[in-house]
Amino acid sequence: MVQRRRETTEVRQKMITEAAMKVIGQKGVNGATTAEIASAAGISEGNLYRHFRSKEEIIMSVIDRIGSDLASILASVKELPNPLQKLETTLKCHLLYIEEHVGVPRTIFSEEIIIANENLRSKVRSTIMTYFHGIKTIVEQGQKSGVFDDGMEPQAITGMFIGTIHFAVTRWMMNNFSPELTHEADGLWKCFARSIIHKD
């Protein structure tokens, strides 16, 4: 009986986290109230507080979900045959993920998180750095195998990779989420790849 109640709580928390991502995608972190999140999850606000003690806890759960999703993207490319394919697929999957989950950039780039809340800022920083190290590992593999320019610092290449995504997403958001990010993926990848491929 206790086990079943715990499973119900886990399911509810996932449902509330998903609802929070959707509401944040529409209204941003500041505009996403617990009442709206509860409504989007199909539960009462009182019921929401049975699973999360505060809005901050809900946002923490959203950030955890983003970290888990990014880790899944990296895991999905692990068995690809070469580092170039790994990076290309990662970039395209990342852009598709953001396109389908507008709440992701509106959480990560939120002023409430970046400036106002140290707990949330620390959580985002940890999430980004974990992803950063995953990308850097692929870059180092590419340099070791002679695919990528080994005269460049792996950290710099990784920063360029994430910066390419960041700029594309920022421009997309400022342009009212148009055109679709996935339409730009091939062009972005070709420009980036030319800058890092080893030249004989």
CATH homology superfamily of the domain at 60-196: Tetracycline Repressor, domain 2
CATH arch. level architecture of the domain at 60-196 = Orthogonal Bundle
What's the CATH class label of the domain at 60-196? Mainly Alpha
The helix tally amounts to 10
Question: How would a crystallographer describe the biggest sheet?
Answer: none
Relative helix content: over 70%
String of helices and strands: HHHHHHHHHH
Q: Name the overall outline.
A: elongated
Strand fraction band? under 5%
**Oligomeric organization of the protein chains:** single chain
Average pLDDT across residues?
93
Low-confidence spans = none
Protein structure class: mainly alpha
State the distance separating the first and last CA atoms.
66 Å
- The value of Rg in angstroms is 19 Å
* Quantity of strands, as a count: 0
The CATH topology of the domain at 60-196 corresponds to: Tetracycline Repressor, domain 2
What does this structure look like?
- The protein has 200 residues and is an all-alpha fold.
- The protein has a domain at 60-196: Orthogonal Bundle (Tetracycline Repressor, domain 2).
- It is 80% helix and 0% strand.
- The chain contains ten helices and no strands.
- Helix 1 (2-31) packs across helix 2 (34-41).
- 28% of the residues are buried.
Characteristics:
Tetracycline Repressor, domain 2
Outline:
The protein is mainly α. 80% of the residues lie in helices and 0% in strands. It is built from ten helices and no strands.
